């Protein structure tokens, strides 16, 4: 087993985008952060040095962390934060996973700029036959002129929605539709006739995105580090926390510019629907006439294939096209039967907080978010630690409600009264090792038009069903896909609909479940589940490392 070692210094770096120069939180001064490239089966050790005056943690999003929950990263869930001046080495093995993932900070809103690609090269050859000329990371993100942590603080203080970012980025570059950004444009050179692998990552804080390349077709071959049945599309939809690997053949004849635009913009945005929300980069054909690589005239940029804003029909069709490969070499291990089903609402709440109500100390009308009316409160000590050490001052309880407290009807005329009863706490689901767990995520659609990207730590899951309206316990399970459902770590639950996911709970430890729209996590759209140790030594959580930070 090869051990690959990385050193990550969390540090400030002066960076300029959109005519604004500011101290940006980075890893090793890079924005986006360094790529972690490893091979299936490797041991990985990432020494993180915190060189700032604030706490930090890092998370290897989608990496299973079998028995090594101590290295997962979400602050106060699996570890206390790394304090300023301190270090912590994340140690884990890459077992039976391959493809594109991402890593990001998991403290406050630091992941706004602290993120990067995590690439796992497969042990066996790719299951698709194309000759790949080069791999191109395409990391979608957001740029904030201000300090994102301050945006979160003000949002919690006022109870209103957060300020949005100032622009979207491809590999840290906003591109020419934004002010002062002509030179801050990502350009990738390609050769005619060659096939490229694009590793597309949505590291944005707050938006699902469409991504497309003018005139070029994209063939999806893997999502969330799991191979899929290949399918071809003109654009993709990708939620924060999701990754999508596509093959693209450079088979178009360029015009005199030699360039084709690659573009991303939100599925939904309330601000400046065109220019200020579309990030552009370019494919530059080598040997095309424009040898100096001068960016084309912006008027030629109508030429990308992006769906219209809020094109739900496209989004639904696209996610419906994603199927597990389910081949002899890469079988689909979806649990055919379940031991336990949890039905939970995922809601935004406009909460009235009179003096007699907890509301985390906040007063007045304000936003919160909840699952089964439980708004998740992050404790002040690590849940994994208090669970492992059996601390009497536990930071959590094991009584997450298994069904919505009120009979729920999202089509009902009075969503307000059904959603004004938020309770605050740290309630988790507890299951024995090996449980086949089904979680039905029911969006209430109240105040929310986006699809909530629900992310599960420590496990992949199978999306066995989804639909619009209310989940029907009697009829919907009969239509589940138990043959080749997509296997992922983040599911975009349709707005005004539901998604049913199945998890084989085979990773002992404490695992966060939350919405990957960052403001929703701040408002409490989260829970967690504990997988108890199994009988065999190989089914037990490993002891904590020596250098685990303390609170
Ligand atoms: Cu990508 Cu809990 O996060």
From TrEMBL:
Where would you find this protein in the cell? Secreted
GO terms of molecular function: copper ion binding; hydroquinone:oxygen oxidoreductase activity
InterPro entries under this entry? Cu-oxidase-like_N, Cu-oxidase_2nd, Cu-oxidase_C, Cu-oxidase_fam, Cu_oxidase_CS, Cu_oxidase_Cu_BS, CuRO_1_LCC, CuRO_2_LCC
Q: Which Pfam family, any one, appears in the UniProt record?
A: Cu-oxidase_3
Gene Ontology process terms (BP): lignin catabolic process
- Tell me where it mainly resides: secreted
Concerning PROSITE patterns, the annotation shows:
MULTICOPPER_OXIDASE1 (PS00079), MULTICOPPER_OXIDASE2 (PS00080)
Q: Carries keyword Iron?
A: no
Q: Which cofactor does it need?
A: Cu cation
According to the entry, every stretch annotated as the Plastocyanin-like domain falls at 9-123, 136-288, 399-533
Q: What does the UniProt keyword field contain?
A: Copper, Glycoprotein, Metal-binding, Oxidoreductase, Repeat, Secreted, Signal
GO CC annotations? apoplast
Q: What NCBIfam families does the database record attribute to this sequence?
A: laccase (TIGR03389)
The similarity annotation says:
Belongs to the multicopper oxidase family.
- Listed name of the protein: Laccase
Q: Which organism is it from?
A: Populus tomentosa
């Amino acid at each position: 087993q090869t051990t690959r070692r990385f050193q990550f210094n969390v540090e400030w770096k002066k960076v300029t985008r959109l005519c604004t120069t500011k101290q940006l939180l980075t890893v090793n001064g890079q924005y986006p952060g360094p790529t972690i490239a490893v091979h299936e089966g490797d041991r990985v050790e990432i020494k993180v040095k915190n060189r700032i005056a604030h706490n930090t943690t890092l998370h290897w999003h989608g990496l299973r962390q079998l028995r090594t929950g101590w290295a997962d990263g979400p602050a106060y869930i699996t570890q206390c934060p790394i304090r300023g001046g301190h270090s912590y080495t994340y140690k884990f093995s890459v077992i039976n996973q391959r493809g594109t993932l991402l890593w990001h900070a998991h403290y406050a809103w630091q992941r706004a700029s602290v993120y990067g690609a995590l690439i796992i090269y497969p042990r066996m050859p790719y299951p698709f036959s194309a000759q790949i000329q080069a791999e191109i990371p395409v990391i979608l993100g957001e740029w904030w002129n201000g300090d994102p942590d301050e945006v979160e603080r003000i949002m919690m203080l006022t109870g209103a929605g957060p300020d949005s970012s100032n622009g979207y980025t491809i590999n840290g570059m906003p591109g020419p539709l934004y002010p002062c950004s002509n030179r801050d444009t990502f350009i990738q050179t390609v050769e005619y006739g060659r096939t490229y692998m694009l590793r597309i990552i949505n590291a944005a804080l707050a938006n699902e995105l469409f991504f497309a390349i003018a005139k070029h077709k994209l063939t999806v071959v893997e999502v969330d580090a799991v191979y899929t049945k290949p399918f071809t599309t003109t654009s993709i939809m990708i939620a924060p926390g999701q990754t999508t690997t596509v093959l693209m053949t450079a088979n178009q004849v360029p015009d005199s510019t030699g360039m084709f635009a690659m573009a991303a913009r939100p599925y939904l945005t309330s601000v400046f629907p065109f220019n200020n929300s579309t990030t552009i980069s370019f494919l530059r054909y080598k040997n095309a006439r424009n040898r100096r690589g001068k960016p084309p005239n912006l008027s030629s940029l109508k030429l990308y294939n992006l769906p219209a804003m809020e094109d739900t029909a496209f989004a639904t069709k696209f996610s419906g096209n994603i199927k597990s490969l389910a081949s002899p070499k890469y079988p689909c291990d979806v649990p055919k039967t379940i031991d336990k089903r949890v039905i939970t609402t995922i809601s935004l709440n406009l909460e009235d907080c009179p003096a007699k109500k907890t509301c985390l100390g906040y007063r007045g009308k304000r936003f919160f978010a909840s699952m089964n009316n439980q708004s998740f409160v992050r404790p002040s000590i690590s849940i994994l630690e208090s669970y492992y050490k059996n601390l009497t001052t536990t930071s959590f309880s094991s009584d997450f409600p298994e069904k919505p407290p009120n009979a729920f009807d999202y089509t009902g005329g009075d969503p307000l009264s059904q959603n004004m009863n938020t309770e605050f706490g740290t309630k988790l689901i507890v299951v024995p090792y090996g449980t086949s767990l089904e979680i039905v995520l029911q969006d209430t659609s109240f105040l929310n038009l986006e699809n909530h990207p629900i992310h599960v730590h420590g496990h992949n899951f199978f999306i066995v069903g989804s639909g619009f309206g209310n989940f029907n316990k009697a009829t919907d399970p009969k239509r589940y896909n138990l043959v080749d459902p997509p296997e992922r770590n983040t599911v975009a639950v349709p707005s005004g609909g539901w998604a049913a996911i199945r998890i084989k709970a085979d990773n002992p430890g404490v695992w966060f479940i939350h919405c990957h729209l960052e403001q929703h996590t701040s408002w409490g759209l989260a829970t967690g589940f504990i997988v108890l140790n199994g009988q065999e030594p190989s089914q037990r959580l490993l002891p904590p490392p020596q250098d685990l930070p303390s609170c």
